[in-house]
Each structure stands twice: as C-alpha cells, then as structure tokens.
Amino acid sequence: MTKKKVPDFMLVSISVSPALRDYLLSVNNDSDIIFLDYKGPVWIAVKSRLRPVPHNYIPEPAAPQPGKVRLVLPSTSGSKPLLNFDLDAIIHTNYLFRNYLDPDGQKAVAALLDKSFKDRYRSFMTGYLASHSAQRGKSSQIKEGIEEFCRIHRIGLDSGSITYEMFRKDWYRFRNRETPSEISVEVKENI
User: Fold this and answer.
1) Which of 73, 114, 143, 189 is most buried, by CB atoms within 10 Å?
2) How far is residue 28's CA from residue 128's CA, in Å, rounded to a whole number?
3) What distance lies between CA 105 and its chain's CA centroid?
4) pLDDT tens digit sequence for 94-139
5) From edge to edge, which strands make up the β-sheet containing 11-15?
6) Sign of dihedral through CA atoms 144, 69, 111, 77?
C-alpha cells in the first residue's frame, strides 16, 4: 500500500468577526482554509501586505482557531514584482520569507472579505424579496429573508457579533441609497 502524499501549504492567518467566519466556513465546505483566486482583489490585498515574520512571532497551531481563517499562499517560491502605491515601493515577494500579515494587513484583508459577505447578503435579499410576492407585509418578508440567509450560511443571530437589527439596518440603508448606478427608486419600491 502506498501512502498518499498530502501537499503542504503555506498559510497566513487573519482575524475575522464570528459572523464573517461562519459565512466563510459555509461557502468553503466547512473549512477555514481558503484557496484564493490569485488574480482577485483579496489576493492582491494579501500579496501587497505580506511582511517578513517578526522576531517575536509565535507560530500558531495548525488546527482551526475561533475567530480566524487561514489563506493559502501560492506554492511558488517567488512572484512577479508588485508596486505598492501606499509604500511607494516595488515589493519582490518570496513566500518563504514574506508570509506574515501584521494587524493592519489583517484588517484590510478582513474588510475585503466582509465586503464580499455584504455583497452576497444584499444580492440574496434582492433576489429573495423579488421572488416572494407581497402576500404579507414587507417587514415580515425582510425578516424571513434575513432568517433564511442566516440559516443557509449557519450564522447565529444570538452570538452577539451580529444581530437581526444589524442585518435589517444594512438592508434598509442599501435599499435607500441613491446613486446613478443604482436601481431606480420605483424598481426598489417593487422589490
């Protein structure tokens, strides 16, 4: 019997809110290890913020941790140079040496992941409310939509990190925004 070799991955951990972690686990087959699209905005944010490991760094356990997700770095030992406008410098990334996200880098990446979470929530609510006729009041449909989104993505509304009110307020703010690229007010009212 031959032993199947499991590939080793270099991972970088980021801290996220419990609700965001629940969402990421649900869309990633219950794994906290996330393989990024290496041409997407999250990867660009990660790559541009990778730093050398500090001297006082304490390695994290290889097991999943509450409040954290792990991102897989590419298997290549180096990459093309990258211009970082914030630093006004060209960064040559070798993942053997640059594989750490400082707290500011983690916040920036978590903000992008949170944005994708909100985009998914808003798209879900738009579709949910459009597909459910106004048999009951709008507020009850919105409540059902939020509960359905949380059920699908296993987000606990009782965890304290996110509440029904936070979802509801986000939906109303999103729905009432008026910018030239947004849907017209008349269409929004029928949703």
Assistant:
1) 73
2) 22
3) 14
4) 777 778 899 999 999 999 999 999 999 999 999 998 887 666 667 7
5) 11-15, 68-72, 33-35
6) negative
**Nearest partner of 101 among 10, 6, 3, 12, judged by Cα:** 12
Residues in the chain: 191
pTM of the entire predicted model: 0.77
184 backbone φψ class: left, alpha, beta (φ>0; ψ -120 to 50): beta
List phi, psi (to 5°) of 71: -105, 135
Q: Are 16 and 117 in contact (CB under 8 A)?
A: no
The residue behind tokens 């304290």 is 160
**Exposure class string for 151-174: b at 16+ Cβ within 10 A, else e:** eebebebeeebbeeeebeebbeeb
| Other CB atoms within 10 Å distance of the CB of residue 10 | 13
Which residues touch 22 (CB under 8 Å, ≥6 apart)?
Answer: 153, 154, 155, 156
